[in-house]
Design goal:
By secondary structure, this protein is an alpha/beta fold. 48% of the residues lie in helices and 9% in strands. It folds into three domains: 19-245, 3-Layer(aba) Sandwich (Rossmann fold); 258-471, Rossmann fold (3-Layer(aba) Sandwich); 518-622, no CATH class. The protein has a seven-stranded parallel sheet. It has a seven-stranded parallel sheet with strand order 10-11-9-12-13-8-14, with helices on both faces. The longest helix has 62 residues, at 630-691. It is elongated and about 175 Å long.
Length: 777
C-alpha cells in the first residue's frame, strides 16, 4: 500500500499595513465625501472599529442630519446642527468624536479629548450608553459625570477618561475642586440641546466652564430648536460655524408621523380629563407632562391609590439620581405604562414605542411644545400628541401655527368624564401627608403660571383657584401668600403714583367723587378677599366684607367712627392680617396664656414659684439690656433667697400647727371611745337584769287590795308563795315606791347595733333566758 501523503498547510505572512497609513488614507477621503450620494455608514470613510460597532447595534442607514453633518465634522468644522426630534442627532456627533480621537491615536495618558455637555442627567446617561455600544471596539475610555453620584469615585478616575459626558453643574464642580481634571489637550466640545444649555438657567455655569476650556478646539452644537443668537455664539468663540438644518424648509417643524390635537376645558376639569384618558387607554404607552415637580408627585401618589389598572411611574427633578435612572430604564422596557414627568423628560430622551404624549399644563413656549411632543413619533414612526388648554391660554395656538406646527382642535363629551373628585376627598381626609402634598401641588401650579414670561398666554388672575382646589380633593383652598405680597406691592406703587400726580378725592366734583367712591368700595372688596383672615378652616373666606344689600339709605345707618376714618383716609387702608394683630398684642404687652388670680381685696395673688417677688428682680426683668450684670444678678438672688427662707419658715410653722391639731383630735377621739365603752357596759348590765323578767317592784301588792283567793291558793306554786312572803316583808318600801319608779337608762339604737356586732353569743343567751321565763310563767 502506498503511504498516504501528508498535507502540509503553508502559512504565508499577510502584508500588515501600519495603522498610521490607514489613518492617512481615511483622512484623505474626508474631502471627497458627497452628502448627496451616501446613504449608509459604510459609504463614509470610517474606521473598521467604528463600523463594527455601528453594525453590531443595527445602525446601518444614515438619517438626514447624520448624512449632512458627519462629513463636515470629520473635516474639523464648527457645526450648528438643527433637526427634528428623533432624527438621530446623537450619532451625528458621537461618530466624529470617535474618528477624531482614533486618527489622533488617543490613549489614556493623553487625558480628556472630548467633552459632551447636556442639560439633564437622563440625557447624559442615554448618550453614555449609546457611546458604550458604538465605541465598544475602540481603546478609548469614557466617563459619565452627573450629579447625584459618588463624587469621590469620579475624582479618582478623572485623569483616565478620554471622553466625558456630563451636566454643567457637576463639570464645574470638578473644574473647581478636582486637581486631576485637566482639559488643556481637549479637541472637541459638544453641546447637546445647545439652546437649553446656553439659556438663562445655565448662563453663569456655562460662562465659567467656557472660560476654562482651551480656545483652539472644534465645537459642535445640536438641538431640535437651535439657537442663532450672536451673543451665544460669541460666548463659545466659534470659528466660521456651518449651520446645518435639514428640516428648515420642510412643511412642518414636527415629525410627519405625529398627529397633534388640543382640547379646551376648565381648570377644575383637568383631573377628570386625565383620569378618563388613562382609563380609556390602558393598553398603550403614555407620557404626561406637568409644569412642576410637586404636581407630578401628588398626581402619581393619588392615582396609585385610585388604581386605574395600568402601571404608573413618575420622573421629576427632586428624586434621587439612582431612582431616576431606574425609573427611566423601567419605562423603556415596559409595553404599557403611564409616565408622569416634568420637562426634564422633554429633551433628547429616547423612550421606545411611546403612543401618546399628553401635555396637561400649557408649555412655556413653542420650543418647549416641540420637545415635549417629540417624545413620540421618533425615527419615522407614528404617534399622537394631546395638548390640554384653558380658555385663557388659547393664544398659544396661533404661535404654534406660525412655527409650522399642524395642530387641530377636538371636542370631548364632558358628560362622559369619570371624575375621581369624591375618592380624592376621601383619600385626603384619611391621609394628612397626602393632603399636604395636594396643597403644595396647588401652590406650585399657581406659582408656575405666575412666573411664565408670556403674559398674553398666562394670566394668573383668570384662574378659578377655589374650583381647582376642590378638584384636587381639598375642601378649603390654601392661602396663596406670594400673590398677596405682589398685590401689596402693586397697591403701594399705585398709591405712590397717585401721590405724585396729586390726586385728591375731596377736590373732585360730585360725579367724579361718586366714581372714586365706587372704585374704593371695589378695592375694599378685593382687599378683603385677598388680605382678610384666610384660615384653612374657614369656608366663607371669599364672602367676608362683601355687599349683601343694595339701595339702602346711608342716613339710616348709624355712623361708626372707625369706618368713618377708613372712608376719610381711603389711601391709608391697611388690611387686617394675623401679623398685624400679633404686633398689636405685643404693643399692649399682653402676655398670652397667663393666668392672674386675685384675692378678696382685689389684689393680685403672686405665684412665687413662677414669678419674681422682690421689686429689684421685677425691675431687672422689665429692663432691656445687652449682656448679664453679674453683681446685680447676685443681689437679686439674695433678695429672692430672703423671701424663699421666709416662705419656708411659714411652711414649717404651718406643718407644726397641723401636727398639734391632729394630736388634739386624737386625744378627743380616745376620750370619746372610753365613754362609749362605759355606756356599752351599763347597757349589758341592764340587759342581764331584764332577762329575769319584767321589773314589778314598783307595783302595789294585789293581796292587800283584792284579798287572797282561795281557788288560787291550791294552784299556786312554791314560787308564788315565796313571792308573797317577799312582798309582805317589803310592804312599806313598796308603798313608798308606788309613784316613784326606778330610773332606767335609755338605750339608743346605735348601741343596740353595736352590741349585736360584738357577737351572736350574748343574743342567744338572752333568747334562752327569755324562753325559760315564759315557760315558767
Amino acid at each position: 500500500m502506498a503511504k498516504d501523503k501528508k498535507k502540509v498547510k503553508i502559512f504565508r505572512k499577510k502584508k500588515h499595513t501600519p495603522e498610521s497609513k490607514i489613518i492617512e488614507e481615511l483622512q484623505a477621503k474626508y474631502e471627497n465625501i458627497d452628502e448627496g450620494k451616501i446613504t449608509k455608514f459604510t459609504d463614509l470613510p470610517l474606521s473598521q472599529k467604528t463600523l463594527k460597532g455601528l453594525k453590531g447595534n443595527d445602525y446601518i442607514q444614515l438619517t438626514d442630519i447624520q448624512r449632512q453633518s458627519i462629513g463636515l465634522a470629520l473635516r474639523g468644522n464648527d457645526i450648528l446642527g438643527a433637526a427634528k426630534t428623533g432624527s438621530g442627532k446623537t450619532l451625528a456627533f458621537l461618530v466624529p468624536i470617535l474618528e477624531s480621537l482614533y486618527c489622533k491615536q488617543w490613549t489614556r495618558l493623553d487625558g480628556i479629548g472630548a467633552l459632551i455637555i447636556t442639560p439633564t442627567r437622563e440625557l447624559a446617561y442615554q448618550i453614555y450608553e449609546t457611546l458604550r455600544k458604538v465605541g465598544h471596539y475602540h481603546e478609548i475610555s469614557a466617563g459619565l459625570i452627573i450629579g447625584g453620584k459618588d463624587l469621590k469615585f469620579e475624582k479618582k478616575r478623572m485623569d483616565q477618561c478620554n471622553i466625558i459626558i456630563c451636566t454643567p453643574g457637576r463639570l464645574l464642580q470638578h473644574m473647581d475642586e478636582n486637581p486631576l481634571f485637566d482639559c488643556i489637550n481637549m479637541k472637541i466640545l459638544v453641546l447637546d440641546e445647545a439652546d437649553r444649555c446656553l439659556d438663562m438657567g445655565f448662563e453663569q455655569t456655562m460662562n465659567s466652564i467656557i472660560e476654562n476650556l482651551p480656545p483652539k478646539r472644534q465645537t459642535l452644537l445640536y438641538s431640535a430648536t437651535q439657537t442663532k443668537s450672536v451673543r451665544d455664539l460669541a460666548r463659545l468663540s466659534l470659528k466660521d460655524p456651518l449651520y446645518v438644518s435639514v428640516h428648515e424648509h420642510a412643511t412642518h417643524t414636527t415629525p410627519e408621523g405625529l398627529q397633534q390635537s388640543y382640547i379646551v376645558c376648565e381648570l377644575e376639569e383637568k383631573i377628570s380629563v386625565l383620569w378618563s384618558f388613562i382609563r380609556n387607554h390602558l393598553k398603550q404607552k403614555i407620557i404626561v407632562f406637568f409644569s412642576s415637580c410637586k404636581q407630578v408627585k401628588y398626581i402619581y401618589e393619588s392615582f396609585c391609590r385610585l388604581r386605574p389598572g395600568i402601571s404608573l411611574l413618575s420622573l421629576y427633578g427632586t428624586l434621587h439620581q439612582l431612582k431616576r435612572m431606574s425609573i427611566y430604564e423601567s419605562f423603556c422596557k415596559k409595553q404599557h405604562a403611564v409616565l408622569f414627568a416634568t420637562d426634564i423628560a422633554a429633551r433628547g430622551l429616547d423612550f421606545p414605542t411611546v403612543n401618546w404624549v399628553v401635555q396637561m399644563d400649557c408649555p412655556e413656549d413653542t420650543n418647549a411644545y416641540i420637545h415635549r411632543a417629540g417624545r413620540t413619533a421618533r425615527f419615522q414612526k407614528g404617534g399622537e400628541s394631546l395638548l390640554v388648554l384653558l380658555a385663557s391660554e388659547t393664544a398659544i395656538i396661533d404661535q404654534l401655527k406660525e412655527r409650522k406646527i399642524p395642530i387641530s382642535m377636538i371636542r370631548i363629551n364632558m358628560g362622559k368624564l369619570q371624575s375621581p373628585h369624591r375618592k380624592l376627598e376621601a383619600l385626603l381626609a384619611r391621609d394628612v401627608a397626602l393632603k399636604e402634598t395636594a396643597q403644595r401641588a396647588f401652590i406650585a401650579y399657581i406659582k408656575s403660571v405666575f412666573l411664565m414670561k408670556d403674559k398674553t398666554v398666562f394670566n394668573v388672575h383668570k384662574l378659578n383657584t377655589d374650583a381647582f382646589a376642590n378638584s384636587l380633593g381639598l375642601a378649603v383652598p390654601p392661602r396663596i401668600r406670594f400673590l398677596q405680597k405682589m398685590q401689596k406691592k402693586t397697591i403701594k406703587s399705585e398709591e405712590n403714583t397717585d401721590k405724585k400726580n396729586n390726586v385728591k378725592i375731596d377736590t373732585v366734583g360730585d360725579n367724579n367723587q361718586l366714581m372714586k367712591s365706587e372704585e374704593i368700595s371695589n378695592f375694599k372688596n378685593e382687599a378683603s378677599k385677598s388680605y382678610a383672615f384666610n384660615d384653612d378652616d374657614s369656608d366663607d373666606d371669599s364672602e367676608l366684607l362683601t355687599v349683601k344689600r343694595k339701595n339702602v339709605d346711608v342716613d339710616d345707618i348709624p355712623s361708626i367712627p372707625e369706618l368713618d376714618e377708613i372712608n376719610s383716609n381711603s389711601n391709608k387702608i391697611k388690611a387686617i392680617t394675623k401679623a398685624a394683630v400679633a404686633k398689636k398684642i405685643l404693643r399692649k404687652k399682653i402676655v398670652p396664656n397667663k393666668k392672674i388670680a386675685f384675692d378678696d381685696d382685689g389684689q393680685e395673688v403672686i405665684d412665687t414659684a413662677k414669678s419674681k417677688v422682690s421689686e429689684l428682680a421685677r425691675k431687672y426683668e422689665t429692663e432691656v439690656e445687652s449682656g448679664i450684670n453679674i453683681e446685680l444678678a447676685k443681689q437679686i438672688l439674695r433678695e429672692e433667697d430672703r423671701f424663699d427662707k421666709q416662705r419656708f419658715r411659714e411652711k414649717i410653722k404651718e406643718k407644726h400647727r397641723e401636727q398639734k391639731r391632729k394630736l388634739k383630735e386624737s386625744k378627743k377621739q380616745k376620750e370619746k371611745d372610753k365613754d362609749d365603752e362605759e355606756q356599752e357596759e351599763d347597757f349589758d348590765n341592764d340587759v342581764v337584769s331584764e332577762s329575769s323578767g319584767p321589773d314589778t317592784s314598783w307595783l302595789p301588792d294585789p293581796d292587800k287590795i283584792y284579798g287572797k283567793e282561795e281557788s288560787c291558793q291550791s294552784g299556786n306554786d312554791t314560787s308564788d308563795e315565796e313571792a308573797s312572803t317577799a312582798s309582805k316583808d317589803s310592804d312599806d318600801s313598796e308603798i313608798s315606791q308606788v309613784h316613784k319608779p326606778t330610773k332606767r337608762k335609755l338605750v339608743t339604737i346605735e348601741e343596740v347595733k353595736r352590741k349585736k356586732r360584738k357577737g351572736n353569743h350574748s343574743e342567744l343567751k338572752l333568747d334562752e333566758e327569755l324562753a325559760l321565763q315564759l315557760l315558767q310563767n
